[in-house]
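Entry 12.
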Amino acid sequence: MVFDQSAPIADLEQAHQAHAALRHQQSRALLMVRARATFRPLHDFTLVPIFPCERCHDGGLRAVGTVRGRGGMQRAHVCDTCGILRLYDLPDSAFP
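Predicted 3D structure (tokens):
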């Protein structure tokens, strides 16, 4: 997915809150993204957005970490209800 500044953000939270919300989520997609060699978990106090889930319309897409994709760095979000994975491209300005 392409980084979109107009994406509907439901809320902001710190990464440790996202990790806690996904503690019991063991979807195949989540396990696969964490197994990637380029996966990096987010620092506990990193402020990350929660996006509404377009699949189940019930849960929120919560950030779990970053991965390197073909086009650059991407932030991985997993739904806390249905477990779907979405990757969002990060702008170059997000990294020093």
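Annotation: The first helix runs from residue 15 to 21. Helices lie at 15-21, 28-35.
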